[in-house]
Amino acid sequence: MWDRLLVDCRVATMAGSPGDPLGVIENAAIGIQDGRIVRVGPRTELAGHRAREVMPLGGAWVTPGLIDCHTHLIFGGTRADEHAMRRAGATYEEIAEAGGGIASTVKRTRDASECELLASAAMRVDSLMKGGVTTIEIKSGYGLDIEGELRLLRCAKALAASEAVRVVPTLLALHALPADWKDRRIGYVSMMVDELIPAAAEAGLAEAVDAFCEGIAFTADEVERLFKAAQAHGLRVKLHAEQLSNRNGAALAAKYKALSADHLEHLDEAGAQAMAKAGTVAVLLPGAFYALQEKRKPPVQMLRDHGIAMAVATDCNPGTSPLLSPTLAMNMACTLFGLTPEEALAGMTFNAARALGLEHEIGTIAVGKAADLCVWRVESLAELGYWIGLPGPERRIYAGEDS
Ligand code: DI6
Ligand code: FE
Predict the structure, then answer these.
(1) Could you write out the three-class secondary structure of 330-359?
(2) CB-based pocket (< 6 A), ligand 1
(3) Which three-class secondary structure state does DSSP give residue 320?
(4) Rounded to whole angstroms, how far apart are CA atoms 234 and 167?
(5) pLDDT recorded at residue 185
(6) Which of ligand 1's atoms lies nearest the C-alpha of 96?
(7) At what angle do helices 102-111 and 146-162 cross, to 10 degrees?
């Protein structure tokens, strides 16, 4: 006997075909046992099965639980003051060069106790969960020294234990050069490459390694040193690439078989070709584009032409994307970047799973996968990309349980 049987629903498995990208099953049923999906199909095919709990869903839509594959949500303080400065005309780069930006969050993060960090991060996680998220990637990157970065990864682990959500920790090892290392760039990169990566890998605190490849951050050569070390320690890589300018980050990411290259507003043809060849996912972050009031959009048609998978994420962070809603991220991906609602939903399910290297476990409704599901009281799933501020699903099921 199964634990649960969801009936009277329409299912988007997200494991469809080019002609039916949502993989729709009308009048469907989903069997759940031990937190996993054991059957999905038309109800008539599941008719003989019994379950301890039968849940009639009154014709609602069921999708995989949403996956937010790019966040930086553990940090101290906020940057609401910079939001005001930017409204008065200052640019993100100007604020960063004047000692604000990431450096100011680093200070607030260092000053915060672990308890304070966890409490404020839990509020952000809860908001994303209410929006339908069942898996969250969380990057470090506001420590900027060995202990500070490891501390953030330990916080991510603590959140994973306390919240009903899967947390995927990423070591963002090269995010910003601290002011006191200004004249010692090479030494700083060496510290992260030679000490931080081995320490994080040995402690099992990170699934992947990330960096910010940008004029105000790190060069492609510096990032390459980091990627070599990550690979030597068995960690996958991903990269903040071509956000504010083109630094050949996408091609570098592809060279190291990165799971994803993220942002990509300034991606060029060569970068796209390299990503397509390597199977690197493009993670689009409309919250940062919106908050920075950028003009240049990621080349979505170029990504489509190359068959590059597109994911969508909140980039939840205090500086460039204080975005707490996955449904708003999907709406913005449609309205600002021109994704179809189906692409936006694939971007927060199947393609987001690929961006985390977890496509065998989550991202579609299929036998053997985790029973992470959202039940949406909508007429059509196009509404997920349509409402501006849809609060979230009617039910969110994580590992087979409502939460
Ligand atoms: N790119 C971003 O958009 C964030 N980090 C990064 O590498 C910004 C983080 C911040 O401003 O605090
Ligand atoms: Fe980011």
Answers:
(1) HHHHHHCCCCCHHHHHHHCCHHHHHHCCCC
(2) 72, 101-102, 105, 175, 212, 240, 288, 315, 317-320
(3) coil
(4) 19
(5) 98
(6) 11
(7) 70
Q: What atom in ligand 1 is closest to the CA of residue 102?
A: 12
| Ligand 1 atom at minimal distance to the Cα of residue 212 | 7
The number of distinct structural domains making up the chain is 2
Q: Residue 47: is its pLDDT beyond 90?
A: no
For the record, the structure tokens of 33 come out as 């046992």
Ligand 1: which of 72, 105, 283, 314 to mutate, most ligand atoms within 8 Å of CB? 72
48 alpha carbon to ligand 1 midpoint, in Å?
52
pLDDT tens figures, 239-268 = 999 999 999 999 999 999 999 999 999 999
CATH number of 54's domain: 2.30.40.10
**Residue 326: its H or E element:** helix 326-335
At residue 300, the 3 state secondary structure works out as helix
Q: pTM of the entire structure? A: 0.98
Instruction: Phi first, then psi: give them for residue 282, nearest 5 degrees.
Output: -90, 115
Ligand 1 geometric centre to CA of 102 (Å): 7
Asked whether residue 127 falls in the same domain as residue 189, the answer is: yes
Q: Are 8 and 57 in contact (CB under 8 A)?
A: yes
Amino acid (one-letter) located at 62? V
Domain residue limits at 53: 2-65+363-402
Domain identity same for 171 and 257: yes
Which CATH number goes with the domain that contains 118? 3.20.20.140
My answer on whether 241 and 94 are in the same domain is yes
Residues 403 and 397: their CA atoms lie apart, in Å, by 6
Report angle CA 62, 164, 12 to the nearest 5 degrees: 15
Same domain, 187 and 50: no
